[in-house]
């Protein structure tokens, strides 16, 4: 174990850090699109079912496993899962708990950079949309700016002309990330999220109030008003509930939104004290995520789009996906707000940047902890190595921008597919190897709330079964086409090779750590339980 | 916006706002932590 012992400074700190990790771009951009496309208000039925049957129980299991690992002085997901699963198989499956956040960080910081670049542009006069032109022209202008910032039209474009602005923005964003990770948990990440989360809530509230007071901006189109905009998002279409796709989409949304199966919660919870309350912490972090997702995301994005673009324009925006909606359509919407355009645009993208950075900060911590634990290196040395890996990944992301193929490949396999795998591994080890009774006792140690006993059954039987069904459905729907797409061009192949390289690195580090910790007499197989 | 739309929206918003409020209330009501030990971070 590293001698540089880290711990959270306060119980609120870890809650905000986990909530910050969970609240990301998906809360504001992905959720409303998913809801509108899958039954509107009716989508909330499978959504809340998934929250109670998947999100909360798996989250609690991760918090509990992390805290248990911490009691034994273990912090990286491989070693924690090795102790929970009592052996090498669990330990090496736990490598996913580092691969996922580190792999996702390679492109997530790039997308985070877009939000920051947009924010800076709005601060300095806007992104070049002419509000007097027709909507089609404005959409084209917005699309041009999106291409300029993302380099989506070709590889290497970000290193040329005005697109260099993205690279400069990335340098700033990445430096901020590494700075706070370098400062450690309590002085770095915890301190940052303690400011960032309330500021993000205030920004969301300002935008929400502005959107809800838009009224009927164009009297010649009385149907395009706020109430109808809310109706576009919330009017239920119960026919969608008979479609398996709706339930799959709801489970997927809960899953990715709450950051379960991501490897971060295990790592963060491992720094809690033995008497800390993981039951209430897990619930509060999840509730905070839901507030941002349903309370803000569900009220702002599509309502604003509807008021200015109407039914067909909003449907078209939803069809372009989260990024099309957030970075292409919403700037057109802001352009219709007259004097408020740049103010609301700046607040919106600053809020998205805060949402993104509180997530990306959490992605480096598991890899740093894993390396420290395996090598007994200092925090600074370990952070430096992870920063170098992050830089290599980022340079690849910044170069292979054509069609977004590099990052979308990594996103599919690491940020989507492997999350399902890790979550299944975790909940099965928790319920069936560590033992549900033991896990239940551990969950309630120091808890100020009693989790309803039905969750025992959910954790042991329903969540694994639900996950397996969702996983099989997801695989049937996506696996073949995604595998083909993952080797179809240079960027995608680079993405696959990057994943492979990170995986090899992590397996080697885990092997080194296993040997070192055994030699040091650490009980990594949990032969002497700590409970 | 239909009546059912209002119902779904009101129920969902109430759930997330009240749920989050109650959780944080409970967190803040529980006794404060001990001061974290020195030696954090780098």
Structure report:
The complex is a heterodimer of chains A (531) and B (42). Chain A is mainly α. Chain A has helices spanning 11-22, 25-37, 44-71, 77-85, 88-93, 96-123, 135-150, 164-182, 185-212, 226-234, 244-258, 264-269, 278-319, 321-335, 341-375, 379-399, 405-444, 454-485, 490-519. Chain A contains 19 helices and no strands. The longest helix of chain A has 42 residues, at 278-319. The two termini of chain A are 19 Å apart. The mean pLDDT of chain A is 94. Chain B has one helix and no strands. The chains are: A mainly alpha (531), B mainly alpha (42). Chains A and B meet through helix 1, helix 9, helix 10, helix 13 and helix 16 of A and helix 1 of B.
Tell me, rounded to a whole number, the average pLDDT of chain B.
83
Structural class by secondary-structure content of chain B: mainly alpha
* Low-confidence spans of chain B: 36-42
Q: How do the helices and strands follow one another from N- to C-terminus of chain B?
A: H
Binned strand content of chain B = under 5%
Name the quaternary structure. Answer: heterodimer
Silhouette of chain B: rod-shaped
| Major sheet size, sense and barrel closure of chain B | none
The amount of beta strand of chain A, in percent, is under 5%
- Largest sheet, strands/sense/barrel of chain A: none
Total helices of chain A: the number is 19
The average pLDDT value of chain A, as a whole number, equals 94
Task: Compute the number of strand runs of chain A.
Answer: 0
Structural class of chain A: mainly alpha
The percent range for helix content of chain A is over 70%
Shape of chain A: globular
Order of helices and strands of chain A: HHHHHHHHHHHHHHHHHHH
Question: Main attributes?
Answer:
heterodimer, A: 531 residues, mainly alpha, B: 42 residues, rod-shaped, disordered C terminus
In brief:
With about 525 residues, chain A is mainly α. Chain A has helices at about 10-20, 25-35, 45-70, 75-85, 90-95, 95-125, 135-150, 165-180, 185-210, 225-235, 245-260, 265-270, 280-320, 320-335, 340-375, 380-400, 405-445, 455-485, 490-520. Chain A is globular.
């Amino acid at each position: 174990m590293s001698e540089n012992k880290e711990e959270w400074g306060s119980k609120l700190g870890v809650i905000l850090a986990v909530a910050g990790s969970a609240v990301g771009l998906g809360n504001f951009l992905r959720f409303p699109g998913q809801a509108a496309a899958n039954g509107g208000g009716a989508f909330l039925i499978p959504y809340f079912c998934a929250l109670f049957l998947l999100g909360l129980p798996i989250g609690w299991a991760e918090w509990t496993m992390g805290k248990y690992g911490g009691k034994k002085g273990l912090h990286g997901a491989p070693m924690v899962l090795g102790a929970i699963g009592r052996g090498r198989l669990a330990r090496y499956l736990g490598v996913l708990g580092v691969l996922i956040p580190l792999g996702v960080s390679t492109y997530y910081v790039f997308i985070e950079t877009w939000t920051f670049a947009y924010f800076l542009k709005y601060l300095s006069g806007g992104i070049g949309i002419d509000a007097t032109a027709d909507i089609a022209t404005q959409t084209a202008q917005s699309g041009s700016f999106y291409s300029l910032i993302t380099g989506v039209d070709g590889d290497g474009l970000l290193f040329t002309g005005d697109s260099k602005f993205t690279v400069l923005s990335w340098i700033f964003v990445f430096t901020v990330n590494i700075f706070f990770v370098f400062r450690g948990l309590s002085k770095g990440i915890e301190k940052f999220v303690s400011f960032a989360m309330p500021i993000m809530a205030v920004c969301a509230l300002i935008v929400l109030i502005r959107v809800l007071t838009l009224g009927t901006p164009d009297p010649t189109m009385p149907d395009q008003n706020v109430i109808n905009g809310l109706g576009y998002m919330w009017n239920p279409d119960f026919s969608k509930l008979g479609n398996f796709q709706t339930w799959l989409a709801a489970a997927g949304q809960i899953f990715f939104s709450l950051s379960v199966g991501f490897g971060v919660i295990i790592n963060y919870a491992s720094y809690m004290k033995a008497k800390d309350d993981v039951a209430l912490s897990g619930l509060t972090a999840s509730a905070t995520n839901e507030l941002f997702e349903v309370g803000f995301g569900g009220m702002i994005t599509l309502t604003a789009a509807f008021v200015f673009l109407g039914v067909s324009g909003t449907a078209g925006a939803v069809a372009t996906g989260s990024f099309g909606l957030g970075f292409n359509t919403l700037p057109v919407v802001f352009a219709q707000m007259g004097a408020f355009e740049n103010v609301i645009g700046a607040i919106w993208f600053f809020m998205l940047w805060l949402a993104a950075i509180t997530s990306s900060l959490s992605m480096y911590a598991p890899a740093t902890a894993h390396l420290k634990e395996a090598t007994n290196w200092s925090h600074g040395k370990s952070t430096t190595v992870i920063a170098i890996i992050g830089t290599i990944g980022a340079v690849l992301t910044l170069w292979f921008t054509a069609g977004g193929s590099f990052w979308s490949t990594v996103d599919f396999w690491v940020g989507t597919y492997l999350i399902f795998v890790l979550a299944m591994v975790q909940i099965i080890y928790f319920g069936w190897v560590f033992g549900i009774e033991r896990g239940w006792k551990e969950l309630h140690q120091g808890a100020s709330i009693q989790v309803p006993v039905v969750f025992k059954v959910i954790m042991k039987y329903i969540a694994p079964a639900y996950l397996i069904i969702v996983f099989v459905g997801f695989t049937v729907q996506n696996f073949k086409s995604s595998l083909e797409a993952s080797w179809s061009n240079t960027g995608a192949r680079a993405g696959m090779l990057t994943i492979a390289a990170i995986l090899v690195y992590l397996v080697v580090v885990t092997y080194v750590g296993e040997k070192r910790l055994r030699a040091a007499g650490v009980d990594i197989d949990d032969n002497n339980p700590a409970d | 916006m239909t009546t059912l739309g209002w119902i779904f929206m009101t129920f969902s918003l109430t759930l997330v706002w009240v749920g989050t409020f109650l959780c944080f209330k409970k967190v803040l009501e529980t006794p404060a932590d001990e001061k974290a030990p020195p030696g954090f971070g780098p």
